Amino acid sequence: MSYTITALLAYLLGSVPFGIIMARAFGLGDLRAIGSGNIGATNVLRTGNKLAALLTLLGDAGKGAAAVLLARWLIGEGQAGPAGLFALLGHLFPVFLAFRGGKGVATFLGTLLALSLPAGLAACATWAAVALAMRISSLSALVTAALAPLWVAVFYHWHGAVLVALMSLLVVAKHAANIRRLLDGTEPRIGSK
Question: Are residues 93 and 19 in contact, defined by beta-carbon separation less than 8 angstroms?
C-alpha cells in the first residue's frame, strides 16, 4: 500500500505545472498560447522573462528530485527510481491540465540528480554541451535522453539504468514534433521568440 501511495503522491507532485504558475505570476498570459505552447522553461524563456524561465526550470526539476528524495527517505532506495518515474509521468500527463503536459526534460534531469548525483551531473553536462554547441534545446534534450541510461549504468547501477531508459523513451516520444522539425531544419534555437 505504501508503494501505491508513494506513486500517487509522486504523480501529483509531478503534475504541478510550474510553467503555467510562473507565467500567471509574472503576467505573461496563457503559456499554452505562446511560442510552442509547451509548459516548460524553454517556452517560458520565449516570453523574454528569464527569471520566470529560471523559476520554472527549478520548479520542474525540483519536483522530480523531491519525489525521489522523499521516496528514498520514507520507504527506501527501491522506491526512489519509481517515484521519479511517476513524477515524470505527472509532468507529461498532468491531471491538473487534462493530461496535456510538458516534455519532461527538467523533471527528468531533477530525477537523475536526486537518483545519482554523478549521473545527474553527467546528464546536465551533456545537455549544456549540446546546447552551447548547437543552440537547440530539443536536440540537447534528445542527446541527453539517449545518453542518460549509460550515465546511470556507470555511476549508479544497471537496474536504475533500465528504469531511466524507460523515462528516456517517454521524453523522446514527447519530442516527436521537435524531431520532425529538426529533420526539416525548422526547429527554433534557444532564445528565439
Answer: no
> What's CA 76's distance to the chain center, in Å?
23
Contact at 8 Å (CB) between 112 and 164? yes
Q: Which residues contact 115 (CB under 8 A, 6 or more apart)?
A: 68, 80, 81, 84, 152, 156, 160, 164
Over residues 85-141, the pLDDT tens digits come to 999 999 999 999 999 999 999 999 999 999 999 999 999 999 999 999 999 989 999
Give backbone dihedrals phi and psi of 34, rounded to 5 degrees, phi first: -120, 140
**Angle, helix 176-184 to helix 137-155, in steps of 10 degrees:** 120
Separation of alpha carbons 54 and 41, rounded Å: 7
**Cell triple for residue 117?**
548525483
Angle at the Cα of 155 from the Cα atoms of 159 and 80, rounded to 5 degrees: 50
Terminal-residue alpha carbon distance, the chain: 47
Instruction: Give the three-class secondary structure for 156.
Output: coil
Kindly report the CA angle at 161 between 63 and 61, in degrees rounded to 5? 15
Q: Give pLDDT < 70 ranges for the chain.
A: 1, 191-193
Q: What does pTM read for this prediction?
A: 0.95
